[in-house]
Amino acid sequence: MIREQMIGKNIGRSGEFRWRGHEISRIEGLSDAVFAFAITLLVVSLEVPKTFDELAETMHGFGAFLISFMLLFAVWFNQYKFFRRYGLRDTATILLNAALLFVVLFYVYPLKFLFSFLVDRFTGGHGEVRLPNGNVVAMIESNDQMASLMIIFNLGYLAVFGVFVLLFWHAYRKRQALELNELERFDTRASIQENTFNCGIAVLSLLIVGIGGPARAGLAGMAYMLTPLVLTVNGRLMGRRRRRLQATASDAQAV
Q1: In terms of pLDDT, which residue wins out, 3 or 109?
Q2: Whose CB among 44, 147, 208, 213 lies 3.0–4.6 Å from 220's, allowing a Cys bridge?
Q3: Between helices 91-106 and 26-42, what is the axis angle to 10°?
Q4: Is 140 helix (H, G, I), strand (E, B) or coil?
Q5: What sign does the CA torsion over 120, 122, 125, 128 have?
Q6: What is the pLDDT of residues 105-114, one digit of tens each?
Q7: Could you tell me which of 12, 13, 14, 10 has the C-alpha nearest to residue 239?
């Protein structure tokens, strides 16, 4: 339902990239169900709080839920745009999409755990959680555990954007069958490059942990602060190249 409404309003359509997927495929229907289930697993609490203390504890997890939700939505929206642009439903696309859904489901809890810890620390907490029996324990007890958590997060991040690299590369390989024009081919290569940069940041974080050891786990997490800088610079450079290509194409048509 949501996808159909978005398609009808051309939400996500940018530039002159023609849409080839105008109907919701079965694989997209399955994807929506998986993403909905993943968001359900992120919900702060499935039970209505019975006391104000329980309500306060529930609200304390809102920040982690918001960040995790936004990351999942970004993945879903990228997948939505891919199917709109290329409309592929072949075996390779189905398998790659299945791999994406598997990674999303597998990493829901690590994602929520990591951001619950980080939000608690950044809001003045001590990275502790209250167990059902009332005991308060540390969420992460050592640098070794923090390093392991960063490795888990890095592998999930790398897997998600690695799948997107393969999806866009697969679409680019089918550029003739899809009848992609020059600008559409450029945009496809740009998508491959952008997702490759995301993979590169995950690899950098993994190298920091692998080479520096558990003591550098915090630095490995800070490596992701490079993401907005790298993607902004890449976006501007690719935008300039695209405008030049578009101007050249317009001049050629005028002649």
Answers
A1: 109
A2: 208
A3: 10
A4: coil
A5: positive
A6: 999 999 999 9
A7: 14
Gyration radius (Cα) of the chain, Å: 21
Return d(Cα 104, Cα 8) in angstroms, integer. 27
Q: CB of 171 within 8 A of CB of 82? A: yes
- Which amino acid type is present at position 204? L
CA 34 vs CA 153, 159, 175: distances in Å: 20, 17, 29
For 16, counting Cβ atoms within 10 Å of its Cβ (0-12 exposed, 13-18 middle, 19+ buried), the class is: exposed
Alpha-carbon dihedral 101, 35, 84, 175, rounded to 10 degrees: -10
Residue 75 sits at the vertex; the CA angle it makes with 69 and 77, to the nearest 5 degrees, is: 95
Full DSSP string of 143-181: HHHHHHHHHHHHHHHHHHHHHHHHHHHHHHHTTTTTT--
DSSP symbol at 133 = T
Task: Report how many helices (DSSP H) and strands (DSSP E) the chain contains, helices first.
Answer: 10, 2
How large is the angle between the packed helices 226-254 and 182-212, nearest 10 degrees? 160
Q: H/E element holding 129?
A: strand 128-130
pLDDT of residue 175: 95
pTM: 0.89
Q: Residue 91 class from Cβ within 10 Å (0-12 exposed, 13-18 middle, 19+ buried)?
A: exposed
The identity of residue 124, as a single letter, is G
* Rounded Cα gap, residues 201 and 205, in angstroms: 6
144: its two tokens = 């070794």
CA–CA separation, 173 and 190 (whole Å): 14
Contact criterion met (CB below 8 Å) for 96 and 55? no
Residue 246 has, within 13 A of its CA and on its CB side, a CA count of 11
